[in-house]
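Progress note, project year one: complex with adenosine monophosphate.
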Amino acid sequence: MLLQDLTEVYEQVRGTSSKLEKIALVAELLRTTPSETLPLVCYLLRGRVFPEYSAQELRLGWSSILAAIRAVTTITNEDLTAAYNKFGDLGSAVELIFEQKTKISMSLVSEPLTVEECYTALVKIATLSGGLLEEAIAQAFSVNLEVLRKAYMVRSDIGEVARIAQEQPETLPSLSIVLGRPLRPMLAETADNLEEGFKRFDKALFEYKYDGARLSIHKDNEAVKIFTREAAEVSTSLPELVADIKQIPHSFLVDCEIIPFEHSPKAFQELIKRLRRKHRVAEFVRKIPVKLYVFDLLYLDGTSLIDTPLINRRERLKTVIPPTEQIEIARCIVTKSGAKARIMFQESLDLGFEGVMIKNPHSLYMPGKRGFEWLKLKPEAETLDLVVVVVEYGHGKRANLLSDYTFAVRDREGNLAPIAKAYCGLKDREIEEMTQYFKGIAREQHGRTFLVEPTVVVEVKFGEIQKSSLYEVGYALRFPRIKRIRWDLSVDEIDSIETVEKIFQRQKRSS
Ligand code: AMP
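Model obtained:
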């Protein structure tokens, strides 16, 4: 199949804003795609090269892409940067360069399959993420969309599922989990308060929310495989868990959270030193002990449980996983009582955990879905008032907007010291207005970056404060987000490094 057949459809898809027309165009392409090529076409349409369950990536970095463009054109660095700055998007920049052929001599333009064609193709693909491809496959092979979605959930491989839809559509409803192949985790929405669970599902199931890394553990007879949320296998770095799990006389798939733990939960960064480690594993098993909290059972001895209500999955879980020194079943309560929920929340914080998860006891497990069947609740985040010192153009849709801000705190000498950078938090209209405002107070421009007069004070929310060498001040905010612009505050009123340290100490005490 010629790459051109695919890119033509990308062009047509790009040319219409009608979702139905897009689906019809892709469906027609899929119908005429030979079955051996169908999975590849589906991966490409998703902007991928490998199935979703695979941790393999293309790993084509920015500099390789620039080098590739320079290899087929005689364009200078400056021209390319100028074109990129115009759009904030490499695809559009390359398009511009190729349109200006008179100015630039091309060395490879007559080749039938070129780097730029492939690259443009891969960029366009991104437009087909989301549900659109699933709808096109369902339409192409006349299968029920919900059945197809479910099949994709359990298989995490859109190419494989498309091929089954084409060749054996009647087997789609009975497709099941494959042990050893990562399943995409079910995700939670944020709850505003503890009562939200009761409003949504009467009785609610509360668990502690552990601040670590999501893991799924697949045990297929003797074989134990542990995967991260990104589908990377990390079994080698966790030999003590593998040894415990090997003892369990069942085949299963469990969903869990791992945290660094020595008498109490330790800082999340410790975990990074352990996960994915391939060398000096034994030494780090001793140095950084971990605890695994298992909170869900998705498959047991040949039977998928994702269509079984959570409350029943929880019952079964207890009978399968015996607690060990480093493995525990996550504590849970099912209640209607606001008082009991509040006690659970406070207990979680007292024990050094992050908050609570509030789950619908009757919910089914929806791999890869973020929804309101699971809610997460953390204490009201602390905020800091900081001043914007650097602004940058964003990327993609925000390429022409100054949407990325660096914030500074006041250090001990009274100087402004950067401590965080945030990309989001403001509404599009506000960002547009702020773009004009910041251009007016810009002191210097370096490419896509502007140093601005330190006059805009913002209230910044964050996950936590970390010690960090990223900024000279020695701290960085984790997950910073702008809560609101404080037009009522001046730069003299921003928070100081002392406040940052105070919050950091408080955080440490509670963990
Ligand atoms: P967040 O990362 O803030 O979106 O919160 C969701 C994440 O919390 C999940 O992806 C898990 O990694 C983690 N988590 C911690 N405890 C639990 C729990 N009891 N149930 C489900 N997820 C949990």
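The two ends are 57 Å apart (CA to CA).
Residues 185, 187-188, 207, 209-210, 214, 257, 295, 330, 357, 376 surround adenosine monophosphate (CB under 6 Å).
No further modelling is planned for this target in the current period.
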